[in-house]
Amino acid sequence: MKFIIHSKQLLKQAIAFEQELGEKCYIPIRDTKQDHGDNILPANLKALMESENVVFVFWDGGSFGTMFDMGMAYALGKTIKPVELVEGRSWQQYFKSKIGGQID
Q: What φ, ψ does residue 85 adopt, rounded to 5°?
């Protein structure tokens, strides 16, 4: 299973990307019950642990939940592949240069 980390505002883009991939992916806002952080974080961690090595990211530059999920993915040794990142943010440069390569 592929995991798509995304900012809330970029849910439509994450779902469109899932359709491009042609397979069911784990998309947190859709697939994790959005009730309380004490439940959301372990559910996302479990899904990340069960996902393939490469995770995809759609980040608006401000979502702390997205940053948290990227941190968990990084700690698990996943390759983080940026798909859409806001311009001009230091995290964008970090993922482009260190672990994610180029944005397609």
A: -130, 145
Structure tokens at 91: 């995290």
Structural domains in the chain plus CATH codes: 2-99 (3.40.50)
**Tokens 């809330």 identify what position?**
8
Read off the pLDDT of residues 25-63 as tens digits, 9 standing for 90 and up: 999 999 999 898 788 999 999 999 999 999 999 988 778
- pLDDT score at 104: 44
Q: Judge contact between 63 and 7, C-beta under 8 A.
A: yes
Strand spans (E) along the chain: 2-6, 25-26, 54-59, 79-85
Residue 25 phi/psi, 5° resolution?
Answer: -120, 165
> CA 84 from chain center: how many Å?
10
Beta pairing class for 25-26 and 54-59: unpaired
Question: What does the alpha-carbon distance between residue 3 and residue 44 come to, in Å, rounded to a whole number?
Answer: 9
Residue found under tokens 């372990």 = 42
Please give the model's pTM, rounded to 2 decimal places: 0.81
